# Entry
Amino acid sequence: MPLKKLFCLPSARSAMYYCAVQFKDLAILDRSTFGHALYNYGHLTRLATRFEGSNAFSTHLTQAEIIFGDDSRFFNAVGELAERGSYHGVFVLPNVIGGVLGKDLSAMAEEAEKKFNLPVFTVDAHQDANFMDGQQLFYMNMFKKMADSNQLKKEYTYNLLCAGPFDCFAAADAAYIKKLLYKKLGLVCNFDLSQVISVWDWKDFGRAGLNIVCSDAGVKLAVEAQQQCGIPYLRFYPLGEKMESDGLSEIAAFFGIPFRTRQDARFAEVCREFGNILSVFKTKIICFATADKLRALRSFLQLFDVDAEYWCPYFTTGFKTVNEDECLSFCKGNDVLFIGFDRLAKQFSHAISLEKSGLDYHLQIPFRIPFVGKTGAYRLMQMIVDGLI
# Structure
């Protein structure tokens, strides 16, 4: 395996950290050594946190404590966090130390919760877990620990699972979808995963009538919520007019709301012009992104005569699995237009950046042009034309 200098996908652990740090009243406790803590405090928190200071802490284990399995620092740390009173939960960040020594972090978290009367949870991630697994497992376990599943449902409401700390457009996509659902169907958002900042935001999660999944990061959460709260879920991550109309029709049918689709003549004309340009250049397009982005891109670009391949950096049904080094090598050796992760996009003169791949910081700006819907399709078509020309 070659050295990775310019491009490296985050691990499951990094993904969990990025997800957890968005909650200002959730303490992140790393049962680890000083080196791990230095990385968390000095780098990850600086890049990821929305708040002043840091909600990440470490037990600073010594070699002797690791060798002899001394857990006193862990329980003392949870006790200190409970005494502070500013945190309403503790997330125990999993790491290789616990895995190698066979420590049952879930059992330790449960014991600490009973001892200090403070919600404490962790995530059991398998050895080969990738950054998407990390996001899915964190949000699912956060829901299981913090949400109230015995609440009365509110009519015509939904939870929007449009998230993922590595998605450059999460906030903009969420803002677009919420506005679209209210304008077209009169639906009100009960919970927006891209905007939650407090543990208490999860308390009303069970009041929605439907979970709308826009990101694969929310899939396991939606499945768990269906089992615990009886909230069904639908996938809705539209790119272009057809996906948008089909998705709205499905959501309207679920709520029993009359809805008629109407074709946008201007959008159809722009698509015809875009198709003509693609037929002239015949440039191969390589899409290298997460599965939710790839599904949207494939559904839209298949409407045109375009030579495109859709690659995913982790195994998922329906797409070819390609690692970052293979993608970089292929794209540099061929005349292609690259669409996907930002770190790779920076390596090419003709590229479109969609998602964070490393530990760079991107402001989640809700009024940024979204990736979804007709607006996102307009933007994508123009960017592809610019890249080709």
